[in-house]
Design goal:
6 helices
């Protein structure tokens, strides 16, 4: 969803900038709910205030709900057909490619600095180590969120201190 969201709201409609998409993703990933719904709410609010957020969220949710609701009645019958079984397997590969594309796009818009590289390396190493020693992802996520909050507060405080001097 991220490349599609980015293309639609940044490139096609120019509602927000490329840099702001990182903020949307960060906010959307830390709040409950799917990233597309959270992003729609955020962009709707930025473009048209509270009513924009409400209508953007409803406009995104209702078509998806109706489509999934209709498919749910026929899913067991669909999956028995080899074509649809192959289609769903192909969709899994497509999702992996979309995720890879999103990572590349986000990496290009990310401002690279020493601190960012250090944080990325630490998160990568911790994720790999935790996957081998079977520590649940909930604790890893909580630890990384707390570390991110602490790092963000520290960086903000240091930046303000430099500006005051």
């Amino acid at each position: 969803m991220i490349p599609l969201i980015q293309d639609e709201i940044c490139n096609k409609h120019k509602w927000i900038s490329e840099e702001e998409i990182l903020d949307i993703i960060a906010i959307s990933e830390t709040t409950p709910g799917p990233i597309a719904v959270n992003a729609a709410t955020f962009v709707g609010y930025r473009v048209a205030g509270v009513l924009g957020a409400i209508f953007a969220t409803i406009g995104l949710a209702i078509p998806s709900f109706v489509i999934i609701f209709v498919i749910s009645f026929f899913y067991k019958d669909f999956i028995k057909i080899k074509f649809f079984d192959a289609l769903f397997k192909g969709l899994k590969i497509g999702v992996i490619l979309l995720l890879f594309s999103a990572v590349i796009r986000l990496f290009k818009s990310f401002k690279i600095n020493l601190l960012g590289i250090i944080i990325f390396a630490i998160v990568l190493v911790v994720s790999i180590v935790f996957s081998f020693i079977n520590i649940t992802f909930n604790y890893l996520s909580l630890g990384l969120i707390l570390a991110g909050i602490f790092t963000g507060l520290l960086i903000t405080a240091l930046s303000k201190r430099r500006e005051n001097k």
